[in-house]
Amino acid sequence: MPNMITLTIDDYEATVPEGTTIMKAAEAIGIKIPTICFHDYCTANALCRICVVEVEGARMLTPACVGQISQGMKVHTTSDRIVRARRTILEMLQASVDLSDSADILQLMDEYQVGKQRFEGSVRRDPEVTDDNPMYIRDYAKCILCWRCVQVCATDAQFTYAINFSGRGYDTQISTFFDLPMPLSTCVFCGQCVGVCPTGALKPKRQWLLELGRSPDEIMSLTRTERQSRRSAARV
Ligand code: SF4
Ligand code: FES
After folding, report:
1. Is the pLDDT of residue 38 over 70?
2. Ligand 2 neighbours (beta carbon < 6 A)
3. CATH for the stretch 4-78
4. Cβ of 8: how many Cβ atoms within 10 Å?
């Protein structure tokens, strides 16, 4: 029987097992804290910080997806300070990344009344779409560096280690080792990275081609030819 902890969240009492995160404790009493990088089946690394909350007595805002509860803790999930922090994160994302395929983030933008003016004119991350295999494309102009794809490719699911962060600071991006084309990496094309990507940065090739206006017949013949030529090349 786990040790139970009682805390208050927005003045409501919650009693949950020790080791629960603030986010899951809030969820247990019906309070939803916004998330972006968090995914139920990936290890949480608190990278986006949209889930920050105020814990009474703590100087800094706490990311609820990793913040642990303690007995008697008092948590606030909405306040001017929290709203300002979340809005700033969304404004910075909007200024640097193509969010056109990120429905959940766009919804948060509306909710937090994010305007365009604050970081207008900032340099956007705008690399070309990488189309190097018949299964999926990588459009890193849409990548928010949430790390979900890297984690499912590694110890959260597949243990394949085909991708990781590369570069530093503004040049940080997701890449294969030595930036090799995906077919030359250890990728087994399981598709789990595509499944957890929240922004459309990773997209099934057929969906991408459909969006570009190609017909289903064209797509079938294109991807089939691509797969066959790769198979023949592998046999040589
Ligand atoms: S490609 Fe998608 S899943 Fe991977 S880090 Fe970027 S946004 Fe996250
Ligand atoms: S959802 Fe908690 S830091 Fe991203």
Report:
1. yes
2. 35-38, 46-51, 63, 65
3. 3.10.20.740
4. 15
Return the pLDDT at 235. Answer: 60
CB 57, CB 76: distance < 8 Å: no
Pocket test of ligand 1: the residue of 41, 144, 153, 203 to mutate, having most ligand atoms within 8 Å of its CB, is 144
Q: If you compute the radius of gyration of the chain from its CA atoms, what whole number of angstroms results?
A: 21
Helix (H) or strand (E) holding 204: strand 202-204
Residue ranges covered by each domain of the chain = 4-78, 136-235
CA distance 213 to 18: 52
Which pair of structure tokens corresponds to residue 130? 């990488």
Per the CB < 8 A criterion, the answer to whether 18 and 84 are in contact is no
Mean pLDDT of the chain: 93
User: Which string of DSSP letters, residue by residue, matches 85-142?
Assistant: HHHHHHHHHHHHS--TT-HHHHHHHHHTT--SSTTTTPPPP-PPPB--SSSEEE-GGG
Using the predicted structure, report yes or no on whether residue 145 has a pLDDT greater than 70.
yes
What number is the average pLDDT over the span 146-170? 94
**φ, ψ for residue 202, nearest 5 deg:** -110, 125
CATH topology of domain 136-235: Alpha-Beta Plaits (3.30.70)
Q: How far apart are CA 86 and CA 52, in angstroms?
A: 8
pLDDT exceeds 90 at position 55: yes
